[in-house]
Amino acid sequence: MRSPRRLAGRIALIALWLALAFFLLFPFYYALVSSLRPGADIFHASYWPDAPTLDNYRAVMTEQPFARNIFNSIVVAACVVLLSLGLATFAAFALARVQFAGRRLLLYTILGVSMFPQVAVLSGLFEIVRLFGLYNNLLSLVFSYMIFTLPFTVWVLTAFMRELPVEIEEAAIMDGATPWTIVTRIFLPLMGPALVTTGLLAFIAAWNEFLFALSFTLTNSQRTVPVAIALITGASEYELPWGNVMAASAIVTVPLILLVLVFQRRLVAGLTAGAVKG
């Protein structure tokens, strides 16, 4: 039989988890409820819509090219993930397995790049984008997003690769495997959880990014969803259709939730990889 102190501790832990879940999930729930309210009903505080309607969703998809904005975000985020993982995998192999002068300095330099706020590099990036003729082009977003996704993926994959047994690599070298074969045929299958974790976090960062997307795109056909939501307007410049904003926010949040739920196990495995050295 459990002692009263242990039972009380368990109840307190469950209560803490419930409070944390409520704190994290309630804003999204209220936004979802608000997106189902018609007209001025959105300004009446209630936890369930009296007359649920999908008018806000229809308005978002028909009054502006929101489907195009979603497509742009998917393309940009997918390209950022593929490029980040591709470059970071080989960079992590070099930083974790190859001995060369200045390796530690290079690793800390990569980390230092990610510490700069976006505003600090915005003007320089804008000049580069303009120089290469990429303004109002999705390639400018892919290029700029790599600044904050690539350092993170390099660090995580380097830490994960350091934990892989050296004997596997030595056995492959004895069999005549080249570095390309070692990375693509041996390390990549073992790095599944880390790749899923870093890829998912890079996708979320690219999907939610606002400042670069606002600065480097001009037309609705090239904008991503965060900028498209911010520029939703009503009948006048002083009127903001909150129902449309809530509906758009719900539309762009659901894919991220589904991705996390689908890759939940691999995500947890990737986040905990390397925490205990064995």
Written account of the structure:
This protein folds into two domains: 1-53, no CATH class; 55-272, MetI-like fold, CATH 1.10.3720.10. The protein contains 13 helices and no strands. The chain has helices spanning 4-35, 55-63, 66-97, 103-113, 118-131, 138-162, 166-174, 179-190, 192-208, 211-216, 225-230, 242-262, 264-272. Helix 2 (55-63) crosses helix 12 and helix 3 runs parallel beside helix 6. The longest helix has 32 residues, at 4-35. The protein is globular, with a radius of gyration of 23 Å.
How many domains make up the 3D coordinates? 2
Shape: globular
Largest sheet: none
Helix amount: over 70%
Classify the beta-strand content into a percent band.
under 5%
Mean pLDDT: 83
Output the radius of gyration. 23 Å
CATH superfamily of the largest domain: MetI-like
Low-pLDDT residue spans: 274-278
Order of helices and strands: HHHHHHHHHHHHH
Condensed summary:
This protein is mostly helical and 278 residues long.
How is the secondary structure organized here?
Elements: H1 4-35, H2 55-63, H3 66-97, H4 103-113, H5 118-131, H6 138-162, H7 166-174, H8 179-190, H9 192-208, H10 211-216, H11 225-230, H12 242-262, H13 264-272
